[in-house]
Structures are given as structure tokens and as C-alpha cells.
Design a protein that fits this description.
Elements (H helix, E strand, L loop, with lengths): L1 H20 L9 E6 L2 E10 L3 E6 L7 E5 L3 E12 L1 H24 L11 H25 L1 E8 L5 E7 L2 E7 L3
Antiparallel strand pairs: 1-2, 1-5, 2-3, 3-4, 5-6, 7-8
Helix pairs in contact: 2-3
């Protein structure tokens, strides 16, 4: 009898642990973006079980603890940190600056009045280069002041085991994503 109880404990213990873990392999404290049928939710994981994922949402004025039913979760992504937009801003600034410099250089080269002095081809190239570099510097500075969050998609656990008590006794179920 003692042996049977020990074997039953060893068999059911891992199943109980799997059921308590929930569908997603997330640790408390991780920053996540959860997409549900009612829209995205961004916050910090507080815990999870087989029925719900508990998230402390990032509210504008205060944070709220939300229990999101596992069955309503379509996708989960984990934060991979924040990144700068400096490179993107510099590229956009260089393009805009070079285009503006080229337009000014062409206007100078085609000038027939006293508003613009007449320019040759080398001055058009110089204007394009100088204004393009200036645009890249300004764009990089503006981009460095704005950041974005990088998200790493998370796949559900390979198999999900759930245990419960039904009207006719103990129920067990396993979900395997296809």
C-alpha cells in the first residue's frame, strides 16, 4: 500500500506542477505584451495558473492587477528592452536634408536673377552634402530622444496538461499545439 501511494505521488506530482505552470513559460516580474480577443495588454507578470495569467497593467495613472483567462490569449511577447531611434532618425534626416540641399543647389544653378547667385555643378554637390549631413545630425538627435520597446514573440509551452474535478470524478486533459 505504501508503495502504491509513493508511485501515485511521483506520477501525479509532475502533472500537478505542469498544470500550475499555465500555458506560457513566464516568470513573475517579466514585462509582456499579451494579445487577446479584446485587444493588446502590456504589463508585468505577477503569476499564472492553468486558468489565468495575472498581469499588473501599465496604466496611465495607476497600475491595475488583471487576471487574463488563458483561453482568451492569442499571442504573448516578452520585452527585450528599449531601443533608440537614432539610426532611423539619422537616415530620415540625411534623406530629407540631401533632397533639400539638392533642390537648393539646382535652384542656385538655374538662377537667372539676383535672388540667387549662379552656382556650378560642384556647388550643387556641396550644398547637397552639407545640408544632407546637417539633416542626418538633426535626425539622429531627434531619434535619440525617442525610444521604442523591442518585443520577442513567445511560443506556448509544447504541451499543456490540465487536471480538474468533474461530475464523474477526476478529469485530465492535454493540449498539444499543432
Amino acid at each position: 500500500m505504501r508503495r502504491f501511494a509513493l508511485v501515485a505521488l511521483l506520477i501525479t506530482f509532475p502533472a500537478g506542477v505542469l498544470a500550475a505552470q499555465g500555458r506560457w513559460l513566464l516568470a513573475p516580474g517579466e514585462r509582456v505584451r499579451v494579445e487577446t480577443d479584446s485587444g493588446p495588454l502590456i504589463g508585468t507578470v505577477m503569476g499564472q495558473d492553468s486558468a489565468n495569467l495575472q498581469i499588473r497593467s501599465d496604466g496611465e495613472h495607476e497600475s491595475v492587477l488583471i487576471a487574463v483567462p488563458q483561453r482568451r490569449i492569442a499571442h504573448v511577447a516578452v520585452s527585450a528592452g528599449r531601443g533608440s531611434n537614432a539610426g532611423k532618425g539619422a537616415a530620415i534626416g540625411a534623406g530629407v536634408g540631401a533632397g533639400l540641399g539638392l533642390a537648393l543647389g539646382i535652384a542656385c544653378a538655374n538662377a537667372q536673377d539676383r535672388l540667387f547667385p549662379h552656382c556650378d555643378g560642384s556647388q550643387v554637390a556641396e550644398a547637397t552634402l552639407v545640408v544632407g549631413i546637417s539633416g542626418a545630425l538633426w535626425g539622429g538627435l531627434i531619434g535619440a530622444l525617442s525610444t521604442h520597446e523591442r518585443w520577442q514573440p513567445l511560443a506556448p509551452a509544447a504541451a499543456h496538461l490540465s487536471l480538474g474535478v468533474g461530475r464523474r470524478g477526476l478529469r485530465a486533459g492535454i493540449t498539444v499545439p499543432i
